[in-house]
Amino acid sequence: MSELLAPILPGATLGVLGGGQLGQMFVHAAQAMGYRTAVLDADPTSPAGLVSHAHVRSGYEDPQGLAELAQLCAAVTTEFENVPAAALRTLALQLPVSPAGDAVAIAQDRAAEKAHFVRCGVPCAPYAEITTPAQLAAVGANLLPGILKTTRMGYDGKGQARVRTAAELAAAWDAMGRVDCVLEKMLPLVHECSVIVARGRDGAIVHLPVQRNLHRDGILAVTEVHAGNVPETQAAQAVAAAESVAHGLNYVGVLCVEFFVLDDGSLVVNEIAPRPHNSGHYSQNAMDVSQFELQVRCMTGLPLVQPRQHSAAVMLNLLGDLWFQDGMPRTPAWDQVLALPGTHLHLYGKTDAKPARKMGHLNITAATPEQARGVALQAAAILG
Ligand code: ADP
Ligand code: MG
């Protein structure tokens, strides 16, 4: 979209493709700023659809649904990484769409994503594409042990297999139905971190502080954000790398870039998400601008101002497992958790709790990282 466009001011309707929790938090941020909202999602009970002014109940590929959304909205964004890029391109013929279909298409494809990192001069894990038996046979021993990842549709550790030998690799590829994959060398991770950048249509860019992330079973469990959570050199490198990845895509919107810090101190990029990210949720309570407000500002052409962190933060993901004890359903003791200072509960309104399902998150803010961590430990003990 041209930078000559006037900003879209509050009062207008903003649309989002996808009705999950990221869409819900986008809707809340947009509404708080005085926008109306429209959500496109086929699920009548989608978290975002439930809180939006309008809810178009259609699939992403339904031309009528897309036309209805375009009719309602002044601009459209996405919350779901696997929304077909074609849907974004179709909408972009009629109204401003950010991020663009071309950028989302790259984030949807691990091979294209890695090729983009290489183009930007940002180091990533050594890898090989595996789309044919010949490519499988040609894999060098230098990539083993490794992680085989489906090129498309993987998330929360799904679509991945850890392999030690060529025989295990071949068996894992068979088990995945020989779909297109990349094999990545298994790296010695010391920390995982991520950076969220927001880039406007004029190319202006701001970023949130470097987030340190802890995963359990391939799913984000805890994010900690305070100065010094990642050594300063790596933090500065991560921000610079995230910015070059965004500039290289001519990206408009909120982009999360995930990194690994290795045992030799080097930093490698892991993957990108073309939307707000679970690791940025602390920004709702610990920053003066949240990642969702940044998404609103990007898509409307409002100014981007560098966000400021005013509190140390810990974010705990609340998975459906917490709704069960010894196999029996229960309600977590929210009253006890909320008695702790600096706790901010965010639940997405999903009615059916299932193990590993993201039901909400708890942001903890405090004056110091030690205090935030102390409260996080107490909250975790209560939630059991
Ligand atoms: P997803 O799309 O499921 O988030 P990722 O590629 O981020 O997939 O992988 C999930 C997790 O698996 C990472 O956060 C990290 O903990 C681990 N992992 C992924 N790739 C590697 C690697 N090359 N070496 C070591 N650990 C890895
Ligand atoms: Mg990941």
UniProtKB/TrEMBL annotation:
It is an enzyme of class 6 (ligase). ATP binds at residues 110, 149, 154-160, 184-187, 192, 215, 270-271. The keyword Ligase applies. The keyword DNA-binding does not apply. Its EC number is 6.3.4.18. Pathway: Purine metabolism; IMP biosynthesis via de novo pathway; 5-amino-1-(5-phospho-D-ribosyl)imidazole-4-carboxylate from 5-amino-1-(5-phospho-D-ribosyl)imidazole (N5-CAIR route): step 1/2. Keywords: ATP-binding, Ligase, Nucleotide-binding, Purine biosynthesis. Pfam families: ATP-grasp, PurK_C, RS_preATP-grasp-like. Homodimer. This is N5-carboxyaminoimidazole ribonucleotide synthase. It comes from Acidovorax bellezanensis.
